[in-house]
Every structure is written in structure tokens, then in C-alpha cells.
Amino acid sequence: MYNIYNGTVINLKFAAVILAGGKSRRMGKNKAWLPLGGRRVIDVIAERMTGFEEVFVSSDIPQEVSGCINIEDIHKDCGPAAGILTALKTTSADAVFVTACDMPLIKRNTIERLCGIFDGRKEAVVLKTDGGLEPLFAVYGKKTAALFEAAIAEGELSVIKIIDKMDAATVAWEDISDDKTEFMNMNTPEDYAAVREAFYETERK
């Protein structure tokens, strides 16, 4: 596995997972396959993950994404919690960086900063934006697999509620980025149009 901060006092190994198993009901089509800059959204996100030695795509539909390993949820129809759990149980890394395919503007440096905050003393590090916690832009320690497993067994599928049971740190977006547009969520056609505009604006800079 790849240690993002190799050579520092923190010597942890990180994997990454892109959650791509959502139904995309509000979008009306698969968000992962929407075009963005001549590529699919999922390919754009995967390109940000090049520093990780092990990158998973969580989806029950096989996704051909360069450099990524497909994994199917251990528990079917249990939402993002099941995708996170599957990645945690599959990897041998110390922690897993989690993102979803509705946030395609994220930057590699921002991912590195978030992972750099995770030092193993807290069970997770979760982004906080102006809209609240972003449980699908977070780092989860491998030991949290037990919490996800227990929650799913009890029928609790809300990742935010599962985080409530963890000793987790929250990180304000301003602490890891100077551009909050990279945390734009893409759930509707209107969101997609806004993300495309922001993407092309960034590309022109």
C-alpha cells in the first residue's frame, strides 16, 4: 500500500474507495458515466487517486476504470455504509479514504491533506462543509469496520449516525482547501450543469 506521508513521524498505509453504487434517481442516469471534460465522471475522480497503491470502485455493476479494483458490497442494498465496510474488510491498509462519484471536482492535494490529518489516534476524519458533515469525503480507520458491520446488522444505514458512534475528528473545508467549489455535490441535472461549468472554469485557469 502507498504511504502518502512516507518519511514523516506518521507511517500509515492508505487505500481509497470510490462509491459508485448509487441509484442516481434524481439525476435520471448513472452519475459515474456522465461525461466531464471528454471523460466519464468516475475516470476524472480516479485520476485524483493515482497516489494510492490500492484504489477500489464499489459497485455491483462492473466498472472498467483504469488502475481500480472492482468490489461488490458484502451486504446488498445497504447503501454507502456497505460500500465503506466492504472496502475496509478488503484492504490490508490502515485506513481507507472514501469519496463518491457525486463530487468530481475534488483535488489530489486536498485528498492528501485530509489523509495527512488521520494519524490513527482518532477512528475517522470527516470533512465538514458549510452544509454540514460530508461522510463520503472522509478517512475511516480499518478498526471502524466492526462499527459498520454492527450498525448494518441492526438496520442502521446512515453513515452520519454510524459516525456518531466513533471517536471521529471533523475537519473544516477551509483547513484543507482554498476553493469550496471542489466540494460541490452532483445529484440533479442542475447540479451536473453547475459542476460542468466549474470544471471547465478550473481547466481554463
**How would a textbook summarize the main sheet?**
7 strands, mixed
Helix content: 25-40%
| H-E order | EEEHEEHEHEEHHEH
Query: Judging from the principal axes of the Cα atoms, what is the shape?
Result: globular
Q: Quote the distance from N terminus to C terminus.
A: 33 Å
Folded structure, characterized:
The protein is an alpha/beta fold and 205 residues long. The protein has helices spanning 41-47, 79-90, 108-117, 145-153, 159-163, 189-204; strands at residues 14-19, 35-36, 39-40, 55-58, 69-71, 95-100, 124-129, 132-141, 168-172. A 7-stranded mixed sheet has the order 5-4-1-6-8-7-9, with helices on both faces. The chain has a two-stranded antiparallel ribbon with strand order 2-3. Strand 2 (35-36) and strand 3 form a beta hairpin. Residues 1-9 have low confidence and may be disordered.
SSE map:
Elements: E1 14-19, E2 35-36, E3 39-40, H1 41-47, E4 55-58, E5 69-71, H2 79-90, E6 95-100, H3 108-117, E7 124-129, E8 132-141, H4 145-153, H5 159-163, E9 168-172, H6 189-204
Parallel strand pairs: 1-4, 1-6, 4-5, 7-9
Antiparallel strand pairs: 2-3, 6-8, 7-8
Helix pairs in contact: 2-4
Index terms:
single chain; 205 residues; alpha/beta; 6 helices; 9 strands; 29% helix; disordered N terminus
Summed up:
By secondary structure, the protein is an alpha/beta fold. It has helices at residues 41-47, 79-90, 108-117, 145-153, 159-163, 189-204, and strands at residues 14-19, 35-36, 39-40, 55-58, 69-71, 95-100, 124-129, 132-141, 168-172.
